[in-house]
Amino acid sequence: MTLPPLIDPFARPISYLRVSVTDRCDFRCTYCMTENMTFLPKKELLTLEELDRMCSTFVRLGVEKLRITGGEPLVRRDILTFFRSMGRHLETGALKELTLTTNGSQLARFAGDLHAAGVRRVNVSLDTLNEEKFARVTRWGRLPQVIKGIDAAQKAGLRVKINAVALKGFNEEELFDLTEWCASRDMDLTFIEVMPMGDMGAEDRVGQYWSLKDLRAQLAENYTLTDLAHRTGGPARYVQLEETGQQVGFITPLTHNFCESCNRVRLTCKGELYMCLGQEDMADLRAPLRASECDAPLEEAIRAAIGRKPKGHDFDYSRQQADGQMSRHMSHTGG
Ligand code: SAM
Ligand code: SF4
Predict the structure, then answer these.
(1) pLDDT digits over 271-296, tens only?
(2) Does ligand 2 come within 6 angstroms of the Cβ of 326?
(3) How many CA atoms lie within 13 A of 297 on its CB side?
(4) What is the pLDDT of residue 126?
(5) Ligand 1 centroid vs 1 CA: distance in angstroms?
(6) Helix, strand, coil % over all residues of the chain, rounded to 5
(7) CB of residue 71 inside a 6 A radius of ligand 2
(8) What pTM was computed for the model?
(9) Which fold would CATH assign to domain 16-333?
């Protein structure tokens, strides 16, 4: 049965769902988590069966792209079962793409099975190629393990894109090394501006902030940048580096340049739907999911939530303080 698609009040069709499947992680990146994080009790989390029901309902309502994230999605127990079961929507053609964002630590173990489940692309987050700096920024991560994961992913036939958070005074001097390294491995690269998510204690966000406008200008000193027209409906803009042929993306969530084409919503691991990354408003979908075995109340709750999707967000660094600061962490909403 074809259901009417999800269209928000600003006539934007909602076709992209990002799903956080866990708030836990085997790293403690300084811009994302504190060292002593308190995680959700298990009963708060959607079970894998509930995640399946939730995502399948979104697919029935017209979602064509699912991105699995976290926390670290690959540390969730039995997560492959979930990937395999989402694969059935790829087979029917209802789902066009199943992807994930990962820190890469478990990829060596899972790459082949992910490919078999229908995953064709992964985003791997990697901010530095220096082992000591990597250990410092991730606190618990080890670079060689991640490199092994990337090797395994490419060997399994997964297209890898690297995501690097641009951090002033940290990976500034590695701009060209990172770019060349990605080019040499035929990987695209996206830079992300650091966002004011969660309370990071001593970390100084304004001090960490490296504007992608500056980063782009530095890149243009060594390469010829051609703007690419295609947009993903998300906060990324892309250029092609003529010298290497690779694509470089810039995610600047702090500027209001993408809200008008926003096609996405985010589901947390406990079943809250955030209609906008930069707004506090959310809808609890776990309650209608658990209240009935029938999906009708859930569908109704999803439609009501999409009906409240705001026009845009309120991040603002312009006054040298992190205005519009969100109380939740990226690992909770899923980056
Ligand atoms: N653990 C996985 C990973 O690291 O790729 C998936 C979840 S992580 C929250 C998703 C993305 O959010 C990562 O690329 C990470 O670098 C980014 N991220 C986390 N905190 C951020 C922040 N405060 N500002 C900008 N990006 C952030
Ligand atoms: Fe974990 Fe990803 Fe957050 Fe780093 S950015 S702590 S890998 S969830």
Answers:
(1) 999 998 777 889 999 999 999 999 99
(2) no
(3) 11
(4) 98
(5) 37
(6) 35, 20, 45
(7) yes
(8) 0.92
(9) TIM Barrel (3.20.20)
